[in-house]
Amino acid sequence: MDKYKATKVAGILGILGNVFLLFIKGITGFTFNSQAMIADAANSAGDIFASLMTFIGNKIASEPGDSTHNFGHGKAEYIFSLFISISMIIIALKLFYDSCHSLFYGSNFSFSWTLVIVCIITIVLKFALFLFTHILYNKYNNILLKANSEDHRNDCIVTTFTLFSVFLSLLGINWFDGVVGLGISIWICFAGIKIFIESYNVLMDIALDTATSDLILDLAHSYKDIKSVGDMYSTPVGYQYIVVLTIFVDGNMSTFDSHSLADSLEKDISKLERIYHVIIHVNPI
Questions:
Q1: pLDDT number for residue 216
Q2: What is the spatial distance between Cα 6 and Cα 130, in angstroms, rounded to a whole number?
Q3: Phi and psi torsions of 245, nearest 5°
Q4: In what order do the strands lie in the sheet with 226-237?
Q5: Could you tell me the domains of the chain?
Q6: Angstrom distance (rounded) from CA 153 to CA 198
Q7: Which residue, among 253, 246, 244, has the nearest Cα to 278 in the 3D structure?
Q8: Residues 66-92 pLDDT 10s
Q9: What's the rounded mean pLDDT across residues 128-151?
Q10: Rounded Cα distance, 178 and 165, in Å
C-alpha cells in the first residue's frame, strides 16, 4: 500500500467514523440541550467535510504529471484544504454565537448518562483512529495523514472537556457547558485559520524554508568543481518543491563533464525529503 492508498483508507475510515459520531452527538446534544455536545457534533460535521475533501484532494493529487500539468497535481491537496478551512471558520463563528447566547440567557441543559456514554464512545473511537493514522503517517510521512492524525487527537481532547462539563452539571454548574462550547468554537476557528494560512502560502508559491535551502547550498558547495553558486528558486507542488539552481564551473570544463556534475548534484538534492524535482543550470566562469 503506497502513501496515496494509505491516505485514501484513512479518509474513508474518517468519514465513516465521523458520520456515526455526528448522528449520536447531534441527537443527544439537542435532546438534552447540551451546547457543548452540540458544538462537538458540529465539530464532527466539519470533520466529515474535511475527510471528504481530503479524500477528493488526495485522489486528484495522486494523478501523475501529464501534458497539461507537467509537474503533477499536488496542489489539489491545498485547494481542497482551503475549502476545509473556510467551512471550519464559518462553523466556528456560528457556534461562538450560540454559546454566547447560552451563557448570557441560560439554557435548559440537563444531566444524562447518555451524554456520558456518547462522550466515552467518541473518545475511544477517535483515539483508535488517531493511533491508526499516526502509524500510517510514521510509515509514509504524508502531510495529509499527519493532519488527520492530529485532528483525531484534538477531538479526543475536545470531547474530554465536553465530558467534564457534563459531570459538572451534577453539581449544578450548568454555565460551564456554554464555556466549553465557546472553547470548542475558538479551537475550530484557530485550526481553520492555521489551515487557511498554510494552504494560501503554498498556492501563492511560498519558497522553501531556510533550513532546507541552506542544506541545498551546502551540497552544491561540497563539489570542488563548482566554483560558485548563483540564484536558487523554488516553487511548491503540493507539499514538495521544484528547485531551480544555477552553478558556475570552469569555462574550460567539457560540456560532458559539466553536465555529469549537474546530474550528480541533482541526484543528491533529489534525495532530500521535500524535493520533487531539481533543475540545474550550468554557466562557465
A1: 95
A2: 14
A3: -130, 140
A4: 226-237, 240-249, 275-284
A5: 3-203 (1.20.1510.10), 210-284 (3.30.70.1350)
A6: 20
A7: 244
A8: 888 887 777 777 787 788 778 778 878
A9: 81
A10: 9
End-to-end CA distance of the chain: 48
Q: For every residue of the chain, which 3-state class applies, written as one string?
A: CCHHHHHHHHHHHHHHHHHHHHHHHHHHHHHCCCHHHHHHHHHHHHHHHHHHHHHHHHHHHCCCCCCCCCCCCCCHHHHHHHHHHHHHHHHHHHHHHHHHHHHHHCCCCCCCHHHHHHHHHHHHHHHHHHHHHHHHHHHHCCHHHHHHHHHHHHHHHHHHHHHHHHHHHHHCCCHHHHHHHHHHHHHHHHHHHHHHHHHHHHHCCCCCCHHHHHHHHHHHHCCCCEEEEEEEEEEEECCEEEEEEEEEECCCCCHHHHHHHHHHHHHHHHCCCCEEEEEEEEEEC
Cα–Cα distance, 76 to 93 (Å, whole number): 26
Place of cell 450560540: 98
| Mean pLDDT for all residues in the chain | 84
pTM above 0.85, yes or no: no
